[in-house]
Amino acid sequence: MAGSQLKRLKATLKANGLTGQTNIKKKGKSKAPSDTRRDDKEKVIQGIREEFNPFEIKVNRQKYDIPNKKVPVARPGISKQIGEDERKAAWEARKARHNKVGGLVDRRFGEHNTDMTPEERMLARFTRERQNESSKGSMFNLEDDDTDMLTHYGKSLSAKDSDLMISDDDDEATFSQKKRQYHETMDEEKPVKKTKAEVMKEVMAKSKFHKHERQLQHERNEAKMFDLNDEFDDVMAELNGVPQPKKPMFSQRSDKDREYDLQVKQLSLEKRAAPADRTKTEEELADERTKKMKELEDARMRRMEGLTNYDDEGEAKAADADDLDDEFWAGSDENEEDGFVIRDSDAEQEDSETEDEDRPKDFSGPNIMKIGDRVVSTGTATKNVPTLCPATHAEFLASLKDVDFAKQPRYVAKILDIYRPNLAEGNKAKIAVFGAVLIDHILYLADNETSQNEALPQVLEQLIAQLRGMSDVYNEALCEAFRSKTDAIHVRLKESQISGDTSVYPLVSDLVFYSLVGSIYSTSDHYHLVVTPSLILMAEHLEQGKVRTLQDVFAGLYIADLFLHYQRLSKRYSPEVTSFLERALLFLVPDATKIDVAGLQSVAEVSASPFCLAKKDKVVRGETLRLTQLYEYEVTVELKSALLLKTLALIDTACTVWREKTAFIEIVSSFVVLLKHLLKYQAHVPEVLVLLEKLLKLSKFSQDTHKPLTLQSHRPLAIATYVPKFEENFNPDKKSYDPDRERQEIGKLKAQLKKERKITIREIRKDTKFTARQQIKEKKADNDAYHAKMKHIYNSVSTVEGAAKNEYEREKKLRKNKR
Amino acid sequence: MAPKRKSDARKAPKAAKKSKIASPAPVDTPRLLSLDEVDALFQDLTTSKLSYNNLVKLLEQYPLIKEELLALEAAGSEEAVEAVETTARHLSLNLFKFFQDKLKTAALMLKSSQKEKEQVLIKWLRAKYDQFKGLVLEFIRSDLGYESSLQIDLLEIYLNLIKLESHHMNPNASDSYFPNLSFNKLCEALLTNENSEILSDGTCNNFIILEFIESFFNKYWDLQFYFMNDLNDSIVSWRAENEATNPEMLQAIYSNFLTIMKSSTMLFQTAKDFDLAELETLTSPPSAVTKSTQYKAQFSKTWLSALNYPLLPSQYKSTLLILHKRIIPFMTQPPQLMDFLTDSYNVGGVVSILSLNSLFELMKKYNLEYPDFYTKLYSLLDQSILHTKYKARFFRLCDVFLSSTHLPNAIICSFVKKLARLSLTASASGVVLVIPFVYNLFKRHPSAMIMVHNTSMDEAALKAYKDPFSLTEADPLKTRANESSLWELETLMQHYHPNIATLAKIFGEPFRKQSYNMEDFLDWSYESLLSAERNKRYKGKVALEFEEFDSLLRAEDVSEEPNTAYLEGWAW
């Protein structure tokens, strides 16, 4: 179609019958109802409009022609216009409100600052106020005063302002009134400038006046005093003259009354009746105890199985620790001089003897104390009553210098008592350090005291009991102390392995250390922070320590015994113990070279040991194995027999502990060989035969469990398969085929959120653009108006000027002409 | 030529004593000269040819100095020792300078053009020079009782003389020359050094040798070459002389030899010859030193002779330790070591384990056949294997030997069963090693799994079942281990160490892991276990023993008391 847009429009309108003659009747056409026709007309016009305005409509381009698919049509121009209108309306509304409706600005300090305490907040406000006061910009700037002033209920908080506004209590005075009042007062006080001479004169006059006043006052007072003194006797006479009511010589009330009064008084003082805690019966106590034990045992079982998580346990135990804490210190109240319940006959005796002398309430000043059956003045012997809590072992040793050896536990108890955590802050930390010192001290005593010291065992036992008592409350500190000790021992062990020097390791204290760990900590745990390292150390000792002397055997046997004792509940197996017991027995039996090596498990070559029990030696009983004597033993038949018997006893224990093991037969096989050999030489020792029989019997029983293993009898594992999944009736429009309903929902929501977000961002952008546009428009309008105004003013001025000039010219001309 | 010169050198002092040339001090009783006197003698010596006889006096000093030093050291006066040493050092240095001068001016070389008188003088000087060298070597060899820096200085002087000789004593001026003889004498002096003390690993701590290795031997290839080249005869002759009478001396010699060989850097890893320019040399040696074949031949010969020495066990061990890496690759005919290795393998114990490495090397590279190898290997699994420090080495090899899938099931089962049995008394490190080892074997030989999972028996068979495994059977094919079960490993599931117990539990779980990397498990020790513990931190409360004890220890004889004790049968 050719022609301009207008021509085309005309042609189209005509073709649709909208212009030109409208009443041409077409033949053969039925009349349509006028209503429909009018609607048709509208539609047709709409169509024509769209046709001639191609940019009004936007249709998404389709890649593929899909039949029966509705193509969405958008009218960007129209929707844009709608948006613009809406924005405009909003803008107008906003503008109308602008500068007319206001909010409240909270200028108080720290109102929303959560870090400030109320005190800090008040202080900050006050300082700020003072600062404002001092740095007032101008003397006459009255208006500014209230801008930064702090107010409360409209009243100023500053002292100065408050007296200016005394009359405002009734809240009726409006702000303007207040202001006026203020101005008035200011006017009244407005100083008239005086000269310096005047000021000085005024000051002098004032001081003279005051001085005179004071003198007058003084005179008046003196005169009054004189008068009073003069009149005093008179007044007293008057007073004495008044007859007083006579008191009865004896109480006239009857006994009954008095009794009654007394009872009333007593009753009023008496406590109100309250239900008392019922004393628990024996059975209940026992029941509680068993319950508690059961709980502890259950926890232990869980730990043994390795089921408890370390962290949970910490929490669970924390509560435990608290109630144990109470008991611990409650005990100390009952048993004040010890702080611990030491079930030792001697200690108890002493307890009863020394009721409260040791209570360190009054260690200031010397007084006489009775300790035991001696009378001791605290000024001398017990001068250094524990006033300080030793932080190192050296300090502790120094303070122990004057303490009787046997009294050391009591001294320790005293320290613990004085530094009870509930007595002063920081005590808990001090005692925690002291715990490590106590460990050091126990080990020190074990090493350095002579075994002849008869008090030693008892002192050690008591100290250990005290340490045990501390282990609960000072759990972490002691744990760390033990762990660092373990490291130190390991270092020494290594050293002695390299140098072969037994004076470095094993010391008696090392043996004591292992026993301490065992007696304080739960050794049956699957993993334990203190026990496991010490187990490793003990195993290392058993494995790598050479068996060369009886001392070696002694130390090894002790450790093996401890090791087995550690495992008495968990019954874990230790190859090192088996190996050591075998070597120890081999070391002690006579004629070791005759034993067939093939029957042994850990020894490849047998050499005759120089310390074995000779063939003719009879086993002698009665020798006690004393730990502190470890390095003082001579090589005697007694010691040898004691060690041999101990070895046999340990093998017995080991069998008891490990009897359930499936490899029991294998474990004891070499013991059987050795015992059979021993039986040839020491048949008269009943233990040998008894043990051998026991081993054989247990082996026989163990045969029942010695059946082929079926360790792999678990359910066969399924092999993971990956089959591709096909969708029947796949629809590309369907967004997701996720079988997980919930995930699908979430996905939908996410998509929606994303969409909404995009829309919102777009809207916000449009808004800001619109605002910017509008602002520019307004500014332009403002400028235009201004320029127009200025132009108008200029014009008018120039008109007036021109007129005036004309008039001037005229006048001038006129005067000229006049002249 | 050489022996003649040697005898000359020995005769020389006597001749010198008899010489009638006048000297400032009486000749008859030589005495220790002071520093000034030595200086004066040298002054004369350098200025005029007439005072050459001073050389005699000066050379006489050495035995005197040595005696004096020994006496003073025994007396323990350090300052006096220092003074004497200073004199000796001065003396040696000046003599060295004198002969250096002579060597550089070719004043010691006989030439046909010289007159008869001159020739006599040269011969005399030559004799003195040889005597000087002999004295120096004697000094180096001897034990002064302390680590004398004088000896080190003399060593340096001697090597400098060798360097000078190489340049100036060349019989044919056109060829490059190495003074074999002088160097060989030095080597002999070093090996027979009296300062040596045999260390626990079979080497020695001789400071002279260590100095020699560090400053010269490792640096200069020509020294290494000629060390090997000429030593064989001495080694053989020493052995012939001393084998019956003085084996300690041979052991000392061997320890010196081992020390030198152990720390030297080696060339000729391949058969290729070297370019002389690439090598750092002390002297300017002939091109023979670059020949790989000659070196290797001499190397083999020397080592084979050295290995014939009566060795200490520690020497045996350390030799075997370096054999497969440092010796076999340099030999022309490594199978020559076969006898030595087979013997060592049959010794048993640690020596067998160590020889296994070299033996394997020979089997791998030189196709060595070893009858009943697995029987022998099985016999190595004795009670001590899990306790030695060489167990990592053994298991590395064992892993290789047992990796063949063609091995009979019975052999694998025997090894597994034996290892399991040994682990019942093994250290923690041993157990840690055995568990993954067995696991890997099971993975490789699934038929051996019958030892942990055997369902083939019916009720009656189960009832009558008795462990048929024979521990004493030497032949791994006949132990009937495959009918047995690994109760030992089941027991180890309750090992006291939590990690090992957990590790052992893999035998009760599906075998899903492909295999364990053995290297992660070979080098565990109690120390590493403990250091792993050290990193654990305190979290939450540590569990306490809740049982109450009245005392820690109690001897049995008071057991009638109702009190309880933690540990009974012991007293404080």
UniProtKB/TrEMBL annotation, chain A:
Residues 32-43, 182-194, 253-296 have a biased composition (Basic and acidic residues). It is found in: Nucleus, Nucleolus. GO terms for molecular function: U3 snoRNA binding. It comes from Babjeviella inositovora NRRL Y-12698. Its main location: nucleus. One of its GO terms (cellular component) is small-subunit processome. Belongs to the NOP14 family. Residues 12-43, 175-194, 238-296, 328-369 are annotated as: Disordered. Residues 328-339, 347-357 have a biased composition (Acidic residues). This is Nop14-like protein. The keyword rRNA processing applies. PANTHER family: NOP14, NUCLEOLAR PROTEIN 14.
UniProtKB/TrEMBL annotation, chain B:
Residues 1-24 are annotated as: Disordered. InterPro entries: CCAAT-binding_factor (IPR005612), Noc4 (IPR027193). GO terms for cellular component: cytosol; Noc4p-Nop14p complex; small-subunit processome. It holds the Pfam family CBF. GO terms for biological process: endonucleolytic cleavage in 5'-ETS of tricistronic rRNA transcript (SSU-rRNA, 5.8S rRNA, LSU-rRNA); endonucleolytic cleavage in ITS1 to separate SSU-rRNA from 5.8S rRNA and LSU-rRNA from tricistronic rRNA transcript (SSU-rRNA, 5.8S rRNA, LSU-rRNA); endonucleolytic cleavage to generate mature 5'-end of SSU-rRNA from (SSU-rRNA, 5.8S rRNA, LSU-rRNA). Residues 1-11 have a biased composition (Basic and acidic residues). Residues 352-504 form the CCAAT-binding factor domain. It comes from the Eukaryota. Belongs to the CBF/MAK21 family. PANTHER family: NUCLEOLAR COMPLEX PROTEIN 4, NUCLEOLAR COMPLEX PROTEIN 4 HOMOLOG. This is CCAAT-binding factor domain-containing protein. It comes from Babjeviella inositovora NRRL Y-12698.
